[in-house]
């Protein structure tokens, strides 16, 4: 009887499995190693994690995928980390004495890749990379790289820029964290609210990078949204961050994500809210969002995430009614008092048109300082459509000239076609 190989299905599905595991496990390995080595050695942790997956690429297509691929990766990562310690005497001398885990005199160390330690390490890394000293774009780049396992090419695509720019942002962000002596740990209780605000804003911006994609090839980057949701959900599972404001942000994400299947047509073009097929909405995500919104209502905190989640909730009710749009309008009114933004004011104007009429909405819209925004002129085109077709067409033409993506131009073209132009 021939010996049984530790690997199965030589050459089988390794090509499809490795990228999936890279996205899921790369960030976990990096987070655990950074918690051991310190944030200043993040590149070393990334190199070890990268070498681990390179080993899989070199071995699995020929020997087959091991029975437990994740355990195989963790074992290789541990061995490579130990080998790095043995090779690099300077690293060994500086890092080993400070390791949180026990290290034997030989340089052997215990790398804890248990589910709990991975989760704790990732949350600690989240607070570290969302350091208030970093600009928002630097925080998002670091989060995508170290916590979401995105490659440099993918991050460049998300930001509509090139690899060199992303590498520079990552380098500056890491150098800033070194200068700040940022630690991979939960902030002290007194600092937690302020630091959590920074973390939530980063996750909110990361989600918006996906939800409002400006890529010429995508109106929706669901991978970015999914990673923002995963990290936010992790916060709800930790006693220190299981707070109403975190549940509010997660509810907001759930409500928006519930309509993803209906937001694009077969050609990848955007479908406006009024034209979406309600039957494609994910009722499970809507229910999940409602549960988290209820959790968010506990206590006396009222954040912009609470109000935006409330607005998103009402949008999961497709049927128009005076109650629906009046509630949305009032939520926008409150939102603008605590977190004013021109875009929120523009969205409020649309709700005003549905609740109070187009004439009142036009008067409000023409006061907004958004003369370089294509969505502003698209809205004016819609508001004037039944009142003054020439004005409506002029606004739509201006919107088309300002639009930056093929998808936006397509929406505006359809609006002009409806007018017979």
Provide structural commentary.
By secondary structure, the chain is mainly alpha-helical. The chain has 20 helices and no strands. Helix content is 66%, strand content 0%.
Features:
421 residues, mainly alpha, 20 helices, 0% strand, disordered N terminus
Blueprint of the fold:
Elements: H1 14-37, H2 42-63, H3 69-87, H4 89-95, H5 115-129, H6 136-147, H7 152-158, H8 163-179, H9 192-211, H10 222-236, H11 244-257, H12 260-263, H13 283-296, H14 304-314, H15 322-338, H16 342-356, H17 358-365, H18 374-384, H19 389-402, H20 406-418
Helix pairs in contact: 1-2, 1-3, 1-5, 2-3, 5-6, 6-8, 7-8, 9-10, 9-11, 10-11, 11-13, 11-14, 13-14, 14-15, 15-16, 16-17, 17-18, 18-19, 19-20
Q: Give the uncertain stretches in residue-range form.
A: 1-12, 100-107
Number of DSSP strands?
A: 0
Name the average pLDDT.
85
Question: How would you sum up the major sheet?
Answer: none
Per DSSP, what share of the residues sits in E-state strands of 2 or more residues?
under 5%
- Radius of gyration, Cα only, in angstroms? 25 Å
Spatial gap, N to C terminus: 78 Å
Shape: elongated
Q: What is the number of helices?
A: 20
Fraction in helix: 55-70%
Secondary structure class reads: mainly alpha
* Helix and strand pattern: HHHHHHHHHHHHHHHHHHHH
